[in-house]
UniProtKB/TrEMBL annotation:
One of its GO terms (cellular component) is nucleoplasm. Keywords: Coiled coil. Residues 92-103 have a biased composition (Acidic residues). The keyword Coiled coil applies. Residues 1-44, 83-144 are annotated as: Disordered. InterPro entries: CCDC106. It comes from the Eukaryota. Residues 104-117 have a biased composition (Low complexity). Residues 49-83 form a coiled coil. Residues 10-24 have a biased composition (Basic and acidic residues). Pfam families: CCDC106. This is Coiled-coil domain-containing protein 106-like.
């Protein structure tokens, strides 16, 4: 009888293990663990998004701070450049005061120089203008534009009179504030009027149609060979300006 009892106990233990295995692998076990896994994954994705959003906000703030610092430094550099350019360019008042200090001496300086027997010459202001330019000869005067043959003749005679004193045409042109080319282009008007006044009277100057240059060419075409020889003789004697003309 004891042997029969042992044979009945073995199946009971095997059936008990199978039941435990079914309980572990059954639907109740899997359903109880599935929600916990999904919850952990969801919370992890949410924390990741929050981290990225915080990082982006921090980067935006850093960019704004760097841009503000850049703008501040740029303003500082521009201000330094303006100050340097203003310090390099002296004003008109500073130039005048410097020239006055160079060209003038105080009474104390004069007394000191007389006591020490040292003569300090005054500095002369150098002129930057060209001596041969008309503006340097007659400051404040501009070229006077003539409007007709009568004014051309008057201007020519003024230059001729000055030429008789200075003996150089360049000096005569400079003193009368006129250039050589202007006198040379309008010289035929004066020369024809002097050597052949009758022919000159026949030529009419119309300001609405003619210019002084075209009228001068018209006068040059009316100079005959004998009149041309007379003009050259007067130039040699100093009665006309010795300009080289082609008739």
């Amino acid at each position: 009888m004891p042997k029969a009892k042992k044979k009945n106990q073995v199946p009971k233990e095997e059936s008990r293990m199978e039941l435990i295995k079914e309980d572990l692998d059954g639907p109740e076990y899997t359903e109880s663990w599935a929600p916990s896994c999904s919850t952990s994954l969801g919370s992890g994705s949410i924390s990741r998004l929050e981290f990225l959003e915080t990082k982006i906000e921090w980067q935006d703030k850093m960019i704004k701070d760097l841009e503000g610092e850049r703008n501040f430094l740029r303003e500082q550099v521009l201000g330094l450049k303006k100050k340097s350019t203003q310090s390099k360019v002296p004003t008109l008042e500073e130039d005048v005061s410097m020239s006055e200090d160079d060209t003038s001496q105080s009474p104390a300086d004069l007394s000191d120089s007389s006591d020490s027997d040292v003569v300090i010459p005054k500095k002369k202001q150098r002129s930057t203008r060209n001596p041969a330019s008309p503006d340097a000869a007659v400051p404040g005067r501009a070229h006077v534009r003539v409007k007709g043959p009568a004014e051309v003749v008057h201007r020519y005679k003024k230059v001729l009179k000055t030429f008789g004193r200075v003996r150089t045409m360049s000096e005569a042109f400079r003193k009368n504030n006129v250039d050589r080319g202007t006198i040379k282009m309008t010289a035929p008007i004066v020369e024809l009027k002097i050597v052949d006044p009758d022919t000159f009277k026949t030529l009419k100057f119309d300001p609405a149609i003619d210019t002084l240059l075209s009228f001068a060419k018209k006068c040059a075409t009316n100079v005959t060979l004998d009149k041309k020889a007379q003009i050259e003789d007067m130039k040699a004697k100093g009665k006309l300006l010795p300009l080289l003309m082609k008739y």
